[in-house]
Amino acid sequence: MFNTDGRMDADGARNVLDVLASFSTNVQPRKDSIDLSKTYTTQFVDAVPNQP
C-alpha cells in the first residue's frame, strides 16, 4: 500500500479498501460510496526534506 518513499497513492488506498471490504460487513455495503481522498494524506511525508 505504501511506496518506497512512504507515500500512499490512490491505487494503494483502493487496495486497502478492497481487502477491508472482503471481510468487513460494515464496510462492504458502503464500499462504493467511500471517498478515499478523504481517508488519507501525504502532507506529513511531503513535509520531510529530501534526503541525499
Please outline what is shown here:
This protein has 52 residues and is mainly α. The protein has two helices and no strands.
**Secondary-structure content class:** mainly alpha
The global form is elongated
Q: How much helix, percentage-wise, in residues? A: 25-40%
**What sequence of helices (H) and strands (E) makes up the elements?**
HH
Terminal CA distance reads 24 Å
The percentage of residues in β strands lies in under 5%
Sheet with the most strands? none
Can you count the beta strands?
Answer: 0
Write down the overall mean pLDDT.
Answer: 88
Q: Mind telling me the C-alpha Rg?
A: 14 Å
**SS element count, helices:** 2
Low-pLDDT stretches: none
